[in-house]
Every structure is written in C-alpha cells, then in structure tokens.
Write the structure tokens for this entry.
Amino acid sequence: MYCTIKLISAFSTLLMKTLVVLFFLFWSEEHLRNSMHPSTHACVYLNLFDFLFLLTQIHRGMVIYICFFRGATDDVLPKMVSTLLNLRLCESTSGKMVSVSELPGSLLIVPQATLGGRNKGRAMQYHNNINKEEGLRLYSKFVSLCEKELVAAAAASATSGAEVTVKHGTYGNRQVLQLDTNGPYTHLMDF
C-alpha cells in the first residue's frame, strides 16, 4: 500500500471550524510498509484557506485528505480514483446511500502529509513519506484523474443543472479548513 486517504462525508449542516486537526493513529508493522494513505469525508459546505486567504470552496460533496508514502507509483492512481468516486458514502435527498459520482457532488482534495506520521517518543516523525517533488507529481496526477472521472460521471448523469467541481489544496502549504458537516463520518483507506 502506497497511499492513505481519509474520507469525510456529511449530509446536513453543523458548523465545525477546524484550525488544527490532530489524528491519533496506531500503526502496525504492516501499516508502516504501506506507501499511500487516502482518507475521505463527505461535506455540505467547505472553505479552504491558505494563510487566511480563501483559496477555494465546495458545497455538497466529499473531502479527500491524501498522503503518499515512499514507494508510491502512478500505477495505483486509477484504482484509487475509481474506488473513491464510486464508494456509496453520500446520502441522496431520498436518504439512499450513493457515491459522490451518483450524487452528483463536488470534491475537495487536500494534501495532508501528517497522515504519514509515526510517533517516536513524544514527537512525530514523517520519514516514511515520499519526497516532496515526487509527492507533488503524484498529487497533481491524482487531482487530474479525479477531475476527468467526476466531470465525465456528471455529464453522463440524468441530474441536470448540478454543479460538480473538483477543487484542491496547495501541496506543501499549511492550510486551514472550515467545514460544515453532520459527521464525523470519516473513513481511512490504504492503497
């Protein structure tokens, strides 16, 4: 496994202003051999800030936090995108669980290197993360694949007039999230 993704899903409005999010993860030796971490979260409304300037926002859809580990390659990206866009994690207006592609909904993709952290004593270390240049390349390709697949799914959908966008954070920068959700409804996935 070369990537971890955290998925966050939400279906109603509950204001959660997030300045700092700390995840406590307990790693096994098998997990440390993995190289990618994605995570998802569906949302109702989200703003992403970079140094207090509004970068982007989405409405109903899914937030994907992603971290690439050493050894990650392009080969796994299509499977990741297909899995993430087709998992039934979103609630339709009828209450049925559907994928973000079926909703149709938007995506916000946030690079989050801290998902690859490992505690050593009382500090966190990130030695298993991919180098910054290769991580940026994989992140950019992942975003492009998500855009292509989600836009194609929306075009094929019977739902007319639905706004579908893929937004993303800036790789390597500290960012602030403001998220409206009825969660937490978070899933951690390894690829």
